[in-house]
Amino acid sequence: MSRRSGILEFAVLGLLRESPMHGYELRKRLNTSLGIFRAFSYGTLYPCLKTLVANGWLIEEPGSAPEDARAASLAGRRAKIVYRLTPEGKEHFEELLSNSGPDSWEDEHFAARFAFFGQTEREVRMRVLEGRRSRLEERLEKMRASLARTRERLDDYTLELQRHGMESVEREVRWLNELIESERAGRDQRQSPSAPPATRKSTSGEAGNLPRHRDAEPSGGTPPGRTGPPDPSADTAK
Amino acid sequence: MSRRSGILEFAVLGLLRESPMHGYELRKRLNTSLGIFRAFSYGTLYPCLKTLVANGWLIEEPGSAPEDARAASLAGRRAKIVYRLTPEGKEHFEELLSNSGPDSWEDEHFAARFAFFGQTEREVRMRVLEGRRSRLEERLEKMRASLARTRERLDDYTLELQRHGMESVEREVRWLNELIESERAGRDQRQSPSAPPATRKSTSGEAGNLPRHRDAEPSGGTPPGRTGPPDPSADTAK
DNA sequence: GTTTTCATGTAACCCGTTACATGATTCA
DNA sequence: TGAATCATGTAACGGGTTACATGAAAAC
């Protein structure tokens, strides 16, 4: 496994960059707002936060006094712990943001990266998007090949399953195409017909250059869809 | 985790029902033809086979003599081991096939079930399909709700991610609708316009009653798409 | 003749979850 | 006052992969 926890670290850093938070809230954001990743349990989150603190990327602050600002010397007080990004943490996150290597093409990793595109530089966004697309295209190639080989042995349902699977991937490729086009259009700052100025709130400073979709009905929970098997195969031998 | 290995067992039994095979080949089929599941490694597969043998569902047979039919008493011979389904195994598989409970609505589980629809009774197929659909609709509901809550705080990219995710789920629901319709149409045996007699090979004895798609370009690798987080949350506190 | 692919196995390890423990705050 | 939610933590367990060991058959 390619360090799923790396995704957690990344996302935590990214969320905390926006504002300090305590663990519980962090987890909620991870599962809902960013709905992207299949949820992490506290058993993963809290230790992870500890690590980040140990690395000097976060500091723990006593939470904004639960109950009220208690002056009493309640030593064993189990207060909310608010985590805040340190300058080093910010720097580290920026470094993570800037890399657009093969890892960032992977399903869950990609989703996490995309979620923070608002804070990512345009060129990096492009590379990530294009990388993701090429990754999916490879996948499609494999699917087509494998299908060509086995096609006639398969029954209708199996075939239909494959067909639907492939269609999903193709659909994501088209989605990426749109995004890439928008990014490109947005690059020369003037607003092209396909990329009118942002109508939705833009957290980042960037212009709104996403493709238009029928505006009601945005969505809410899934990554571009775990699609192909990460294939632990590639064979054990050698 | 809801016993991912249960899926393996099911798929192994299902594949072996069609014909005896050895482990290596089994694994290939699991990753390509059925391309569905994110691949299992040998470290998982072989022990699993052992278990199935121990349960009396499979028997190991010396493979069709590697090299040539060797009569010599090579005791330490590392031959291919071909696994064959026992009558009990077949019975067990049929039992698994017949259950259409909530488990079978889940992402990977569903994909596995669908892959063996050719050997599944129509009523069961219907229940599985409908269950899956309701599961996805729940998911959509949650997504919509969570989105409604957080919408304005989100930036364009996050929103776009959510939108795309939701759209994927909606798309799968439509797919299921088509399938369900076809099943229903197929039930009264005469061939409706939407369900002409099978043109593709049908392994099962059933009539070809799948929805028609532009026929070239079936697909090849992915489950209906890991969509929503299984949500280990539901909160730890009871 | 050597590399690839086929083929079977196992033990160590890693990651993440489950289950539990604890306690404060808010709501009915 | 008791239930639900907020909130933090940890130890044990489990499932699955990685890496390794081994060797035959086929391809080059």
UniProtKB/TrEMBL annotation, chains A, B:
Q: Has UniProt tagged this entry with the keyword NADP?
A: no
The answer, when asked if Coiled coil is one of the entry's keywords, is yes
Coiled-coil region(s): 126-167
Under SUPFAM superfamilies, the record lists: Winged helix' DNA-binding domain (SSF46785)
Q: Where is this region: Disordered?
A: 184-238
Q: Which domain of life is it from?
A: Bacteria
Q: Which InterPro entries match?
A: Metal_resp_DNA-bind_regulator, Tscrpt_reg_PadR_N, WH-like_DNA-bd_sf, WH_DNA-bd_sf
Gene3D superfamilies given in the database record: Winged helix-like DNA-binding domain superfamily/Winged helix DNA-binding domain
- Recite the UniProt keywords alphabetically: Coiled coil
Location of the Transcription regulator PadR N-terminal domain:
12-95
Name it.
PadR family transcriptional regulator
- Spell out the Pfam families in the cross-references: PadR
